[in-house]
Description:
The protein is mainly alpha-helical. It contains two helices and no strands. It is elongated and about 40 Å long.
Amino acid sequence: MRRSTATVKKTYDLPPDLVKRVKKVLDARTETEAIILCMNEVAFRDDVERTLKETGGKLPEFRPLR
């Protein structure tokens, strides 16, 4: 699924300790980067789950990059 690079200003009430932990675990430079990385991971997991459902649990054949 294609992801947009456009951004939108949002305000959320997030647990500061969790944001700090995620930032450290992901080696993110900023809190925003840490949150975006987390959101991308969730979106990726959704893509994988959808693909598995659509293919009846069998992954499509992947072609080598070369």
